[in-house]
């Protein structure tokens, strides 16, 4: 499955915000994020898979030294998680996110 990385705040005036917050989508559906942690003295990139389904023994969060390393770790974790999730639960997540997006549009978010 193809994962796409896009800026979470592409129009923000602060470069640190534009470059530090990334959304990850799969088949056009939001599945996680990769974020620069600027509060630490050394560069740290955190990543998280945000699909809300229990995942026994499968890591859905992590940290890496670079964005590229975080992307690779996210990909490896996503591949394990998606295999465990299966097609039926994935489809339920896709439908759930479509409902969330529709509600947000109705409320003008």
What's this entry about, in short?
With 109 residues, the protein is of the alpha+beta class. The protein has helices spanning 15-20, 67-106; strands spanning 3-7, 21-26, 29-37, 44-49, 61-64.
Our count of helices gives 2
Report the biggest beta sheet as strand number plus sense, adding barrel if it closes.
5 strands, antiparallel
> Strand-and-helix sequence, N→C?
EHEEEEH
Mean pLDDT score: 91
Count of individual domains: 1
The count of DSSP E runs of length 2 or more, i.e. the number of strands, is 5
* Unreliable segments of 5+ consecutive residues: none
Distance between the termini: 29 Å
The coarse overall form would be flat
Output the structural class. alpha+beta
The radius of gyration is 15 Å
Could you estimate the helical fraction of the residues in percent?
A: 40-55%
Strand content: 25-35%
The neighbouring-strand order within the major sheet is: 1-2-3-4-5
Explain what the structure shows:
The chain is of the alpha+beta class. It has one domain. The protein is built from two helices and five strands, in the order βαββββα. The two termini are 29 Å apart.
């Amino acid at each position: 499955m193809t994962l796409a990385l896009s800026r979470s705040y592409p129009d923000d005036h602060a470069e640190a915000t534009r470059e530090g917050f990334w959304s990850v989508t799969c088949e056009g559906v939001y599945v996680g994020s990769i974020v620069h942690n600027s509060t630490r003295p050394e560069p740290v990139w955190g990543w998280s898979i945000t699909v809300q389904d229990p995942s026994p023994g499968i890591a859905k969060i992590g940290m890496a030294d670079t964005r590229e390393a975080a992307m690779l770790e996210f990909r490896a974790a996503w591949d394990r998680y998606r295999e465990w999730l299966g097609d039926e639960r994935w489809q339920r997540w896709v439908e759930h996110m479509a409902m969330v997006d529709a509600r947000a549009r109705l409320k003008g978010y």
